[in-house]
Design brief:
With 76 residues, the chain is an all-alpha fold. The protein has helices at 2-18, 24-47, 51-75. The chain has one domain (22-75). Helices cover 87% and strands 0% of the residues.
Length: 76
Amino acid sequence: MKKLLLLVPVCAALTMTGCSNMNTTQQRELSGGAIGAAAGAGITAIAGGNPIWGAIGGAAAGVLGGYLYDKNQKSN
């Protein structure tokens, strides 16, 4: 249990510092992937499927959406 309590803040610190030097494309792709994974898992769970597959599909669609949104914003 003590290892788990130590692991949580270490993972949180690595997550925060790992995203600090990202450019806008990377930020938009990461945001899209996270939102897509959450939405995909939620929709699949409600529909009675396996949330893991919904999260994977949602994340892929979200990353693609974030990439396309970034390219659209940069072309304007």
